[in-house]
Design goal:
single chain; 497 residues; mainly alpha; 3-stranded antiparallel β-sheet; 71% helix
Length: 497
Amino acid sequence: MLIPLRHENMSGRRWPIITFALIGLNVAIFLFTHWKIEEEQPKRAETRLHLLVLAATHPELKTTPKSSEFIEHVKKASGPSWDRIATSPRSLQDSWDARMRLQDDPTILQAQMDTLCQEFEESEHSSLIDNYGFVPAHPRPASYITANFLHAGWLHLIGNLWFLWLSGFILEDNWGRLIYSVFYLVAGAASLLFYAWCSPESYVPLVGASGAVAALMGAFLVRFPKMKIEMAFVTLIYRYKFKAYAYWLLPLWLAMEFFYGAALGQSSSVAHWAHVGGFLFGMLGAFVIQKTGLEQKASAKIEAEIGWTGDPAVVQAQEALDQGKLDEAVAILEKHVAEKPSSVDALVILQQVHWRRNDIPAYQKASVQLIQAQLKAHNADAAWQSYEEFSNAAGGNLPAAPWLELIRHLENQQNFDRAVAECDRLAQTYPQERPSLLAQLTAGRLSLKKLNRPDEALRFYKAADLSSVPHLDWESNIKAGITDAERAMGAPVGSQM
């Protein structure tokens, strides 16, 4: 099994109330409905089985319109195997099947068919899963919503809610509660609609939040493509953890769902096409939310709720932004930032205004200023989140000093793998500056002491030794690092591997 454990940004600016509410609502509905669904299922399955067997073995019997529709669907889906039910030897299904094989009285057989048709229609009217699950052949309007809150079992529920938590809370933090709530409900309906397009005649009810959750995963890919996800590979005898970028892990999952959907079709107990449809909708929805400025506006309002000091210039700039007066907002904010370069509130709005104007160089500059201001305010968590947004949205590099400070934050968070990767990027970006040397030493130490990768540590220490940056004060540390790395690799100390 491959199980996602966490990703690199497991903190938010405020409590993810909507995500908690969705999780709580799913659990509450499951506890309220699960036992009744389990109680209904045996009789529901038995009625359908008997109806199909009797219809296949005695096609001359009359059935009600709804029962006929169901029988014809199964007959069409079964193909040649339908005729073999009546003409070929087969194992007995149950005692009812044994009795029906011995029965040849048309009146009794028709009475039995009438009873089964009545039970079938009563089941459709009273069954929770038929009434509130999504049946592509005859979808009820409400089921586009209700089906997303029903689950078939504990593992089904827990799996969906775990993915909901990992993907959902970070999107709620960036989009705001209103956009996130609407997106989740619409995405769930869209995933069911996509499945109905792929299997329009299916009578199998779909239940579960996996389509909506797949949409959150698609949105996560668009919004945080470079975010690393920690995964666990688990078997009965072996366990292994690794990290992978969202930009290849999530498309791989989508490709697998597409393959299973194409290969298995309706024979699978998993609605793979609902997952595919949800994921694609999520990608498209996230792109639209980001490019229309809805996300930036929501993020600015969140910052306003949790961090504004009520500075008149900031309030005035926000009002100009709300009215679409972007040039006026820029003029107010740039003047304010020139006077107060550490104003986080002003820089947050300035960053969003430049994004709305599609002025990427100005957006990058404001992002760097924001990160530096957040670090100066000793809010490293917020600075790291701003850096992730900056990297994902526009790219570019930070100045070496704040970049190195963020790396120290990663080390304090025990995110050693990402810290090493950022050290490597910093050293390659600023090879002539002293922070690049410190980054190489940090990467060497973490690779050797924390990640148990002595070959990689040796590479960093040797790069530091060859650096053109003066490093007499660090010479002993570098030589000691090289010696320790070579010893850990089992190589003779001083060798040139």
